[in-house]
């Protein structure tokens, strides 16, 4: 299994390098070894399917991505309580795919499912909850549900500030996302104030 894990690590590196053909071959080789060694019901099997789904999404191979995500989710759901966090991860990733395809209603349902699972297991103040909130907010932006979007962005920011500290990089990203939202809404003063806070978090607040 160490070999399968090493193959997965190399596959992730090749994906980051945009060497997608090599990444797919390595992911599939790792998946084959894992299935033979641990069985199709093992968590490592579904996680490699999720990896392949993300790779296919990145390449624009949406049907293949959907198939991988759905297979992974079916395996995770079959594991019961032990697979719930993995179900949340795959739900979030499949929702991102659907949102990209403008299948917003399906995306919203999946994001809410992922959110419910993560909140119930990790707690409402966990950074992984903030990730789903931000993603759902992006879907609401496409649907022009701006009031709901604003509330989710604010909540995501508050979670990350409390959990990671006010100077974490992700907090700066949250501030910039909320600033961009306010700029689009014509709330320029709010946007400028948030951009200034983000700059300070990133270490650019006047220090040399």
What integer is the average pLDDT? 95
| Contiguous uncertain segments of 5+ residues | none
What is the 3D form?
A: elongated
Q: Tell me about the largest β-sheet.
A: none
> SS-based structural class?
mainly alpha
Q: Identify the quaternary structure here.
A: single chain
Total beta strand runs: 0
Q: Termini, distance in Å?
A: 49 Å
CATH architecture of the largest domain: Alpha Horseshoe
Strand content: under 5%
CATH fold title of the largest domain: Serine Threonine Protein Phosphatase 5, Tetratricopeptide repeat
Question: Count the helices. How many?
Answer: 10
| Count of individual domains | 2
Question: What does this molecule look like?
Answer:
The chain has 208 residues and is an all-alpha fold. It has two domains: 1-119, Alpha Horseshoe (Serine Threonine Protein Phosphatase 5, Tetratricopeptide repeat), CATH 1.25.40.10; 123-208, Serine Threonine Protein Phosphatase 5, Tetratricopeptide repeat, CATH 1.25.40. Helix content is 81%, strand content 0%. The chain contains ten helices and no strands. It has helices at 2-16, 20-38, 43-59, 62-78, 84-100, 104-122, 127-142, 146-164, 169-184, 188-201. The longest helix has 19 residues, at 20-38. It is elongated. It starts with a helix and ends in a 7-residue tail after the last helix. 39% of the residues are buried.
What are its keywords?
mainly alpha; 208 residues; Serine Threonine Protein Phosphatase 5, Tetratricopeptide repeat; 10 helices; elongated; single chain
């Amino acid at each position: 299994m160490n070999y399968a894990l090493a193959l997965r690590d190399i596959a992730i590196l090749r994906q980051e390098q945009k060497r997608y053909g090599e990444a797919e071959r390595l992911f599939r080789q790792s998946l084959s070894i894992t299935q033979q060694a641990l069985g199709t019901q093992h968590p490592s099997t579904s996680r490699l399917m999720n990896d392949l789904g993300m790779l296919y999404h990145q390449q624009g191979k949406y049907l293949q991505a959907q198939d991988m995500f759905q297979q992974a989710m079916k395996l995770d759901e079959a594991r019961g309580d032990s697979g719930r966090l993995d179900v949340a991860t795959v739900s979030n990733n499949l929702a991102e795919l659907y949102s990209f395809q403008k299948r917003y209603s399906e995306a919203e349902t999946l994001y809410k499912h992922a959110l419910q699972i993560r909140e119930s297991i990790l707690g409402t103040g966990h950074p992984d909850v903030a990730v789903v909130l931000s993603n759902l907010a992006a879907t609401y932006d496409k649907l022009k549900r701006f009031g709901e979007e604003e509330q989710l962005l604010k909540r995501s920011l508050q979670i990350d500030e409390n959990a990671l500290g006010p100077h974490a990089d992700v907090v700066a990203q949250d501030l910039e996302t909320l600033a961009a939202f306010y700029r689009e809404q014509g709330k320029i003063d709010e946007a400028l104030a948030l951009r200034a806070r983000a700059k300070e978090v990133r270490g650019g607040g006047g220090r040399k």
